[in-house]
Design a protein that fits this description.
By secondary structure, the chain is an all-alpha fold. It is built from five helices and no strands.
Length: 164
């Protein structure tokens, strides 16, 4: 049963990333250029409607990321938990978490109304480009952790069981 929960948690985590990053890419490269051609009144009406709906995805997505991310970090075995420690694991996971928190703040700021984040909303093309860059870095770190962690696990297995 534990394996089912581990797989489900990873599936929800990755699926959430696909939806939210895909939504950011759609906004940046399809919606914004298309909406720029509209008259100001229609553009503002479209922005209000899109952000009203997108806000729900952002808030639910952040909640799912936090829930599954902490579960994956605390509950799923990692190379760092093995006798042969992979020294890059914790610094990379820490960096990934900090970048994700920055991305969460920017995402919330983009769909919110706080004056503190008005600068983010003032130039959505720039902000979405930065957000997509952060997301790409997070995905890169995740991929490296997966590949490097598997390599560290294989090294442990081959040291403890040379026949494998």
């Amino acid at each position: 049963m534990e394996d089912v929960i581990n797989v489900l948690s990873r599936w929800v985590h990755v699926g959430t990333a696909i939806v939210l990053i895909g939504g950011m890419a759609f906004q940046r490269f399809v919606l914004l250029p298309s909406a720029a051609e509209l008259p100001d009144a229609e553009h503002d009406k479209l922005r209000t409607a899109v952000m009203g709906r997108w806000k729900k995805f952002i808030h639910i997505g952040i909640g799912l990321f936090l829930l599954t991310g902490f579960y994956n970090y605390l509950g799923v075995p990692t190379p760092a938990a093995e006798p042969i420690r992979w020294k890059l694991y914790h610094p990379l996971v820490g960096t990934k978490i900090l970048l994700a928190l920055a991305l969460f703040a920017m995402s919330s700021g983009m769909v919110g109304r706080s004056n503190a984040f008005a600068g983010l909303r003032a130039n959505p093309k720039r902000t979405l480009t930065i957000m997509l860059t952060l997301a790409a870095i997070i995905i890169g770190i995740s991929g490296f952790l997966k590949v490097g962690g598997a390599k560290a696990m294989r090294a442990k297995i081959s040291v403890s069981n040379p026949e494998l």
